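Folded chain entry
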Amino acid sequence: MKKHVAIVAIFLVLYGVFVIALMPANWLVGQIKLPSNVAVAGVEGSIWQTNISQVKVDDIVINNVESSLSLRDIVRRYTDVGIFYGKFSQ
């Protein structure tokens, strides 16, 4: 009986890890309540490598935003997120 419980527990832990690792960024952004002056369009990728086609804050538009998050940095408690963007227009 203990062996079956251990196998089920290992399966559930691995399932949780894979769900988080493969989580789509567009689903995650949909779960976050953004301020009314912020609009995000064209979110693609996973939570580890995300591409956003456009971010609009008030009247400022930022195109081609890319972000990256490293599991190694999370484990080391160094939560630095790399964010890169192109074409800035107002």
User: Anything to note?
Assistant: The CA atoms of residues 4 and 10 lie 10 Å apart. The longest strand covers residues 49-57. The beta strands are 38-45, 49-57, 60-68, 82-89.
